[in-house]
Amino acid sequence: MKNSFLGLCLLFTATTAQAQMTSGLTGKVDTTFSNASAYRQAVKKYPTIELVQEAKLPTVKEKRNIPYCKLGSRVLALDAFYPKKNSIAKLPAILIIHGGGWRSGNRQQHIPLAQRLAGLGYATFTVEYRLSTEALYPAAVHDLKAAVRFIKAHAKKFNLDTTKVTALGFSAGGELAAFMGVTNQNPAFEGESCQGKTGSQVQAVIDLDGTLSFVHPESGEGNDSKNISAATYWFGYPKKENLALWQEASPLTHVGKHTPPFLFINSSVDRMHAGRDDFRKVLYQHSIYSEVHSFPDSPHTFPLFNPWFEPTVQFIDDFLKKVFAEE
């Protein structure tokens, strides 16, 4: 059914789509979304929250600004956090993808989470990817798959178990993490840059309040009546002008038998996890494990703050121990 719908969308789009909008490609960094701006917004309703800060842990080694992909003169980088203590057992890896509406935000926002998870025995990587001020969909997907290939290619350096790689993302990053998981077996989304023989498959996905569909009735994306929406900037088309593209970029479109286990951790803002329940129904049909944890009366930016940060870390650790348990 979903493939038939996508085919109809493609036919419709072929005759109706307008020229792709490039006005959003400003080439300038958008600093609209940051931890500080998120705090200023959230503290109005939640005055007791605390922004989680970076804190170097004595048990964690850090390497920052590691180039993972070069696109002409543009160099994409990531940061690595992993246990100092040498271990015979290889480490599960977690790629952490920031949010910001595919347009703003930066990888430093989730360094506290990366540090905390590294302290629990994971190798974590906060990753930069091209945003919609620089490149349109699917450039970000190509970048993130290249990042997975990079960390797998350097598995020996970080003592990684390349069969235990997780994509973890918040908000727009959650959507991207989900998309990486559902396109594990789809070469159409690998991109042509920074290719290598190493695969980009991930074995688990953690989606922190990221949408599962841009076209689901629950979705809040695509309303351009007051301002151009984040997704419209990313795609370069309003939803009504290129529905097929919006459908293609939705993780719900691709979920199937090759999808890995999923953990959903959600705020009380329902539209931020549009399509989640329908997505889980497909996982269930294929006997693929998933979990949902929701924080009542919480802001969309909950992963940045306590009292939600610590239980989020616990949910992540418990989930990964379960899905990566030794047989």
TrEMBL record:
This is Alpha/beta hydrolase fold domain-containing protein. InterPro entries: AB_hydrolase_fold (IPR029058), BD-FAE-like_dom (IPR049492), GDXG_lipolytic_enzyme (IPR050300). PANTHER family: AB HYDROLASE SUPERFAMILY PROTEIN C4A8.06C (PTHR48081), ALPHA_BETA HYDROLASE (PTHR48081:SF13). Residues 78-271 form the BD-FAE-like domain. The keyword Hydrolase applies. Keywords: Hydrolase, Signal. Pfam families: BD-FAE. It comes from Nibribacter ruber. GO terms for molecular function: hydrolase activity. The keyword Hydrolase applies. Residues 1-19 form the signal peptide. It comes from the Bacteria.
